Amino acid sequence: MKIALITGATSGIGLATAKKIAPKYKLILCGRRTEKLAEVAAQLSKITQVHTLSFDVANKDAVFNAITNLPNEWKNIEVLINNAGNAHGLASFQDAELDDLEAMIDINVKGLMYVTKAVLPYLLQQKSGHIINLSSIAGKQVYANGATYCASKWAVEALTKGMRLDLLPHGIKVTAVAPGAVDTEFSLVRFKGDAAKAADVYKGYEPLVGEDIAETIAFVLDQPEHVQIADITVFPKAQGDGRTFYRE
Ligand code: 8X3
Fold this sequence. Notes:
Elements: E1 2-6, H1 12-21, E2 25-31, H2 34-44, E3 50-54, H3 60-68, E4 77-82, H4 98-126, E5 129-134, H5 147-167, E6 172-179, H6 186-190, H7 195-201, H8 210-221, E7 231-234, E8 239-241, E9 244-245
Parallel strand pairs: 1-2, 1-4, 2-3, 4-5, 5-6, 6-7
Antiparallel strand pairs: 8-9
Helix pairs in contact: 1-8, 3-4, 4-5
Bound molecules: 2-hydroxyethylsulfonic acid.
2-hydroxyethylsulfonic acid (8X3) is lined by residues 136-138, 180-181, 186, 242.
Keywords: Oxidoreductase
Family: Belongs to the short-chain dehydrogenases/reductases (SDR) family.
Protein name: SDR family NAD(P)-dependent oxidoreductase
């Protein structure tokens, strides 16, 4: 059975993806919250073999320590799902807190780079594999009050395209999955725990849920070996572009 490593696996899209692909993959579940990781691992180990790694993707040393010191039987990683990512604040560039802006670059861009660089030696050894990067509609469109979040996702798009080119000779597929509005902890984190503000984002229409994107990721992974889905954007039915929603 192939091994898949998923970051941000304790909630939202990451958790839904872990559950969805558990029947077909052994799983390395990564997250910051040790207790939540143990809970998810206990659940999923009824379906498949699970190994957990607790680190913050923005902590370079922690990422490399955890991944390079994987037990040998967990090193043959075939699938990397770079899901960990956050938005911090929704404010104009002039009003935004610099700490928030840095956190988004540290997690969404540098974190993705650290994890990928740490996992790549295993993929390269096997001359096959698949990297799936969670982008966003914010990686294709820039909206007001989101300059740095959008910049971080544009970076994910560029890294995805660049990695695909560089990894061509090594038989490794690279895909960007770009969701629109998905009802997860995303908005709660963006609005720093303000549940009412977070709920407003998804009011008046049926948003996507983590399971919808998990379906997309499973579809991307289920393609025949010669088929590489380069990128895929998924909206709720009521979403027209990054900021346009039909609300009832
Ligand atoms: C999350 C979607 O539209 O809030 O990446 O940027 S959006």
